[in-house]
Design goal:
The protein is mainly alpha-helical and about 110 residues long. It is about 75% helix and about 0% strand.
């Protein structure tokens, strides 16, 4: 069976959510994204540009641990790097605002 090709971000996002059903994996994504944001802001404010080097390590490191050890699936970053990056931030917002469970249930109906 051929893998579905996503042409828009919003058609991809439901798929992305179904690849993040495990709460531990989502929490690891959340922590990585939060640390990424903190490094970015701190690096800009303080001028400690070395902090910017940590951004991909933190962002991908936490996420990939979630995928490989908890979700047991391949990160969408390998196929859809930009959609996946954007989805990390949208999922971060949905977790932060308490919408994530509802959004995952909606995504399961679409995918």
């Amino acid at each position: 069976m051929a893998e579905k090709i996503y042409k828009t971000f919003w058609s991809f996002y439901p798929y992305y959510l179904t690849e993040h059903k495990n709460a531990t994996s989502r929490n690891l994504h959340f922590i990585g994204t939060l640390l990424l944001i903190a490094c970015l802001i701190t690096g800009i404010i303080t001028g400690r540009w070395i902090l910017l080097v940590l951004i991909p390590v933190l962002g991908y490191g936490f996420a990939w641990v979630g995928h490989f050890f908890f979700e047991k699936n391949k990160p969408a970053t390998f196929t859809y790097p930009l959609y996946s990056l954007g989805s990390d931030f949208v999922m971060f917002w949905h977790i932060l605002t308490g919408q994530i469970e509802k959004r995952i249930k909606e995504a399961e109906k679409v995918v």
